[in-house]
Amino acid sequence: MTDTRPNTNNPRPKNKRQGRRGGGRASRQAARAATTAETVAYIERKLPPVEMLDEEGLAQIESNAETILSEIGVAFQDFPSAIELWRDAGADIDGDLVRFPRGMCREILARSAPAVYTQHARNPERSVKIGGNTTVFAPNYGSPFVTDLDTGRRYATLTDFQNAVKLTYSLPHLHHSGGTVCEPVDVPVNKRHLDMVYSHIAYSDKPYMGSVTAAERAADSVELSRIAFGGDLKDRTVMTSLINASSPLRWDSTMLGAATEYARANQAAIISPFILAGAMSPVTVAALCTQALAEALSGMAYYQLVRPGAPVIFGTFASSMSMATGAPTFGTPEAGQAINVMAALARRVGVPFRSGGQFTSSKTADAQAAYESASTILPTLEAGVNFVLHAAGWLEGGLTLGYEKLIMDADQLGMMGVYARGIDMSENGQAMDAFRTNPHGDHFLGNAHTLANFETAFYRSSVADNNSFEQWESEGSLTSAQRANAQWKKLLAEYEPPPLDESIDAEMREFIARRKSEMPDAAY
Questions:
Q1: CA quadruple 262, 266, 267, 269: dihedral sign
Q2: What DSSP string runs through 466-511?
Q3: Where do runs of H (alpha helix) occur along 143-188?
């Protein structure tokens, strides 16, 4: 595997486009314009969302969720400040258990939670709008292993993490750098968040996520971001981070601590139940959606109690499981149904929605990986999901980030972008002049309309082979995974970092070195 950059214990290599702090607006703009990685805006969907349940069905799920919130309750474990906020808001408190009067959580959200927000990127051209009719694709998250065709499956390292950030930066249909793209297990657990957040900032200028594994790590993420954005965030939202529920019906102190830090700093959070139906919820789609709605409402409302107006995303990670073995299953029709129903519920709450991705249980980038991923990404797009984590690179039920899978998935995301645009009904799209000028019975290959549009007429895959059998054979009979293998190596070999002010880089490194020196290595 190509190791193209040392870790953050070594100075960041200089590049010819690198600017200096205070170098002037014109020079910064020129440096950004020279960035080699192609920029593609977030998707603005023209397709109306597919609706799977009618008004009566959605209203019934909402009523059932309110019953859970008011009668059964949600635990806010070992976090007294959350309990006090809920007590002051008028909830019923029984130890760690909070019961909410019917409608309370929705009312809190209606008062202050934004329906759409902007996550600012270090390069303003890469800032993303989250909510409404937009879709933002972010890569894999949380895998302890990586795999590629050359070296196989192994524990991920910081070099793998940096490579994943560089590849995501270089792939135009991934709009967001993500967060823990893979776990760099060669760095102590209590210190790796510093290297990960730094890598997102230094090796990419796309938006990114912060650490959520402890409150102080969230605070470190905010501080690194403050430095990266010139010393003052000015209340800008520059991170969208993942806060998972301990389903069923619990929020633990780790997630609550991180959420509290981010809310206070006006940073966005994906408030996301994590449910495998049959284990963390009842087995039916309606029950799964009911529980996820209750959990998400309680978490998002808490975020608004901490800081009214702080951006939240209604998140859900929902899948099925094998009732024979207990193993998670992906790409199932029930999971697609859940994505669709939850997206509709999020629209009714009035906040952005996160779900979906390109999930598979397959261990390699094979046919199973392709069809399971397709069975997840299509309902994701058609449901109108706003933020798509795990959009590229996921293998083995999330245990592994695949280098080749990352490339292949990103190519599919480009296709999803075209699909989401809908049908071009402009004068050019109707092409009536082509009909008027083309002789009867002749093909359209030489028509002026074809010649004017041929370069952009159809999506061109960077991975698929559409040549003749003879040409494919003469070029080595390569599989899709083998072609993707060559592509990620080429991208890393040609990678150039985006501009980063030297004084900002030095200040971030000094902060990281100081924070690491303040704590002994730890495995938790």
A1: positive
A2: -S-HHHHHHTT---HHHHHHHHHHHHHHH--PPP--HHHHHHHHHH
A3: 158-170
375: Cβ contacts below 8 Å, ≥ 6 apart = 331, 332, 333, 336
Question: Above pLDDT 90, what percent of the chain?
Answer: 87
Name 336's Cβ contacts closer than 8 Å, sequence gap at least 6: 375, 376, 378, 379
Q: What is the pLDDT of residues 107-136, one digit of tens each?
A: 999 999 999 999 999 999 999 999 999 999
The DSSP code sequence of 500-522 is --HHHHHHHHHHHHHHHHTS---
Per DSSP, what are the bridge partners of residue 182? 143
Name the phi and psi angles at 181, rounded to 5.
Answer: -60, -35
Instruction: Give me the sheet containing 317-321, strands edge to edge.
Output: 274-276, 317-321, 328-329
CA angle 106, 128, 506 (to 5 degrees): 115
- Which pair of structure tokens corresponds to residue 253? 């102190």
Please give the Cα distance from 411 to 484 (Å, whole number).
10
Report the distance separating Cα 408 and Cα 393, nearest Å: 8
Length in residues, the chain: 524
State how far the alpha carbon of 171 is from the alpha carbons of 204, 333, 495, in Å: 11, 29, 11
The DSSP code for 443 is: -
The encoded tokens of residue 495 equal 């990678």
| pLDDT digits 0-9 by tens, 236-260 | 999 999 999 999 999 999 999 999 9
Q: Quick one: which H or E segment has residue 60?
A: helix 55-67
Tokens of residue 391, six digits: 């959009």
The 3 state secondary structure assigned to 345-414 is HHHHHCCCEECCCCCCCCCCCCHHHHHHHHHHHHHHHHHCCCEECCCCCEEHHHCEEEHHHHHHHHHHHH
Amino acid at 308: P
Q: Which two tokens stand for residue 417?
A: 């972008």
DSSP run (H or E) holding 114: none
| Mean predicted confidence (pLDDT) in 173-182 | 98
Among the listed residues 97, 389, 35, 348, the one whose alpha carbon sits nearest the alpha carbon of residue 240: 389
What strands, in cross-sheet order, belong to the sheet with 268-272? Answer: 43-44, 134-137, 387-388, 353-354, 312-315, 268-272, 240-244
DSSP tag of 103: T
C-alpha span between 394 and 435 (Å, rounded): 45
pTM over 0.90: yes
Cα gap 119→203, rounded to integer Å: 18
Contact criterion met (CB below 8 Å) for 120 and 236: yes
Residue 175 near residue 206, CB atoms below 8 Å: yes
Are 61 and 287 in contact, with CB atoms under 8 Å apart? no
Distance CA 278, CA 86 (A): 30
Q: What are phi and psi of 43, to 5 degrees?
A: -80, 135
β 268-272/240-244 pair status: parallel
List C-alpha distances in Å: 35 to 93, 153, 444, 499: 54, 33, 38, 8
Please state the separation of Cα 274 from the chain's center in Å.
15
